[in-house]
């Protein structure tokens, strides 16, 4: 069983890359699939996310969100927060929260699950990421690195 799996969810469109940037930053800090830690980037995973939650003691999901907050705002959701939440965390077909509800119904949730959303400014078709979202991704990576060192 994997001790910790950190999944950056996103797409190549603008600020929707936020989750991927967190994974990039963790890799830059030397966390690259070692010591029971798996890092992965998922491109709009939909129901595939369910299988990525299995066989891990702790899963951290990071995705872009569009709730109307200031771009770069980081929000943490735990198991009690995401149940019934309909606040625009994902635009990936079957969204993250729906996939979590499906995983829960299937008994596939890991013992520990943390979900982080980074508020985005623009998720258009540009390839760039805004400075506030880039800074938030780096800050979140630093925050996550603390307990996994």
CATH homologous superfamily title: HybD-like
Instruction: Could you tell me the CATH topology label.
Output: Rossmann fold
* Cα-to-Cα separation, first versus last residue: 19 Å
Summarize the helix and strand pattern as letters.
EHEHEEHHEH
- What is the CATH domain class? Alpha Beta
DSSP helix count? 5
SS-based class: alpha/beta
Strand numbers in spatial order across the main sheet: 2-1-3-5-4
Shape: globular
What's the total count of β strands? 5
Rounded Rg: 14 Å
Largest sheet: 5 strands, mixed
CATH-derived architecture: 3-Layer(aba) Sandwich
How much of the sequence lies in strands comes to 25-35%
Estimate percent helicity: 25-40%
Poorly predicted segments: 87-92
Question: Could you write a compact summary of the structure shown?
Answer:
By secondary structure, the protein is α/β, with parallel strands linked by helices.
């Amino acid at each position: 069983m994997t001790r910790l799996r950190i999944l950056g969810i996103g797409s190549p469109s603008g600020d929707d890359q936020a989750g991927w940037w967190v994974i990039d930053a963790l890799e830059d800090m030397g966390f690259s699939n070692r010591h029971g830690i798996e890092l992965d980037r998922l491109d709009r995973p939909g129901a595939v996310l369910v299988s990525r939650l299995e066989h891990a003691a702790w899963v951290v999901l990071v995705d872009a969100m569009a709730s109307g907050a200031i771009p770069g705002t980081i929000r943490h959701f735990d198991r009690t927060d995401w149940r019934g939440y309909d606040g625009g965390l994902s635009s990936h077909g079957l969204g993250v929260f729906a996939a979590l509800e499906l995983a829960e119904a299937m008994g596939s949730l890991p013992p520990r699950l943390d979900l982080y959303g980074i508020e985005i400014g623009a998720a258009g078709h540009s390839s760039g990421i805004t400075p506030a979202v880039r800074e938030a991704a780096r800050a979140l990576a630093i925050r996550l690195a603390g307990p996994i060192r």
